[in-house]
Write a structure and sequence with these properties.
Length: 306
């Protein structure tokens, strides 16, 4: 089975399991720490709840840790070097540490005071997969006492419809694509940029829409594309189209922030799959970049020391 096919299975079957995730409330507030998709998951929870902050471990490694705070580390593999180093430092400082991970035997799980296993059946995929990302978001919400309603089937179905409409008009960029989203949709812009790089080897840069217009907009070239994850912001799309470059807009506003966020996650996931189908791509492009992949793993996991 090729890597794209495995992710299709992951995407279509995940809603059978997401409603079965149940975790007890552990704290009123906390600091979530994660890298890559795990950082995005924590950032989504920060925006949704206002009960936590989320940081990359590299943001905190040389900073003073806050007394009395719980540091909750999100990592599917539990092997990210920076997470482990920061968790060890936090524990040595007498702070409470929690690991949210699918790898209960990982170094991160061993270092932290408490373990919250990511209780979801994982499809064998080259990446952490789609369902583990969504499960991270749900788990981190539940640890703060917020359980999303089991409407994943509804959100999933609507997302498939929206992503189908978007993929019909969207083309893979020849150069750089800027992915823009404000507020709750900024983490989804980040998530989209990560997925574009892994699926297609695309240079994708995420910005908050308003901040993009302060400076990055002046670096636009005719070869660049823009994707806007919008909340009643279609007028901005028209303004950017007037600059003479491809602009794609998807309206994602929903007065229910939780519904908007999960529907948007599913939209991004299915958009990647549909663009892959459109262009006949059957394998994640990052897998073919062996040198880059080895360098990435060496820096993230410090392989020789595992």
């Amino acid at each position: 089975m090729n890597s794209i096919e495995s992710l299709k299975i992951d995407f279509n079957s995940q809603i059978k399991y997401l409603g079965n995730l149940h975790n007890e409330k552990m704290f009123e507030e906390c600091i979530y720490v994660g890298s890559g998709d795990s950082f995005v998951a924590g950032l989504i929870v920060e925006y949704l709840t206002q009960k936590c902050k989320c940081y990359s471990p590299s943001d905190l490694i040389n900073s003073r840790l806050l007394e009395g705070k719980t540091y909750c580390f999100i990592s599917v593999t539990g092997k990210t070097k920076a997470n482990i180093e920061l968790a060890r430092r936090a524990k040595e400082s007498g702070l409470k540490t929690v690991a949210v991970t699918a790898n209960e035997n990982s170094k991160l799980a061993q270092v932290c005071d408490q373990l919250v296993p990511l209780n979801i059946i994982k499809v064998k995929t080259p990446t952490a997969g789609f369902r583990t990302f969504v499960a991270n978001v749900i788990t981190c919400l539940q640890l703060l006492g917020i359980s999303p309603p089991n409407k994943f089937n509804i959100w999933h179905k609507k997302a498939v419809e929206l992503s189908s409409n978007l993929s019909e008009s969207m083309t893979l960029p020849q150069d750089t694509i800027y992915v823009l989203g404000n507020n709750l949709l900024y983490p989804l812009a980040l998530y989209t940029s990560f997925q574009m790089a892994e699926f297609f080897g695309t240079t994708a840069v995420a910005h908050k829409l308003e901040e993009f217009c302060h400076s990055p907009i002046f670096g636009l070239k005719k070869s660049h594309d823009i994707l806007i994850l919008g909340q009643n912001e279609k007028r901005y799309s028209a303004s950017l189209e007037g600059l003479g470059l491809p602009v794609y807009y998807s309206e994602l506003y929903n007065s229910d922030g939780v519904a908007q966020e999960f529907q948007s996650i599913f939209l991004v996931q299915n958009l990647m799959l549909q663009l892959a189908d459109k262009y006949g791509i059957t394998e994640l492009q990052y897998l073919s970049k062996e040198g880059i992949l080895n360098t990435s793993s060496d820096i993230i996991y410090d392989v020789d020391k595992q």
